[in-house]
């Protein structure tokens, strides 16, 4: 195999020396890097098949959901609604960390329960605000 590789490299070098690569489309432009350049090679094919079928990895879905929640949070002024959104963001962030294998690995159900409790507290906070008015 090394002989074949050496032969291919020699032919490529000869063609480049004659300038036959100079007029190719995109010559001198940066190469478009694939979005999966940092994904392990053994996972790329499966990801590509899922992507072509319209599916995205769970981490990407969660990042999109976090972005949407952040946008919604920026538009809301009601404190109780903000607390609910922040609770959902926290749960999503914790689930995302567990997908990454980050320092905090918690089961999804646990993250969901935390979000529910934070939402309950936000609801109680909203009820207390209404009662004090």
UniProtKB/TrEMBL annotation:
Identification of the protein by name: DnaJ homologue subfamily C member 28 conserved domain-containing protein
DnaJ homologue subfamily C member 28 conserved domain segment(s): 7-73
Pfam families documented for this protein: DJC28_CD (PF09350)
Sequence intervals crossing the membrane: none
Organism of origin: Paraburkholderia fynbosensis
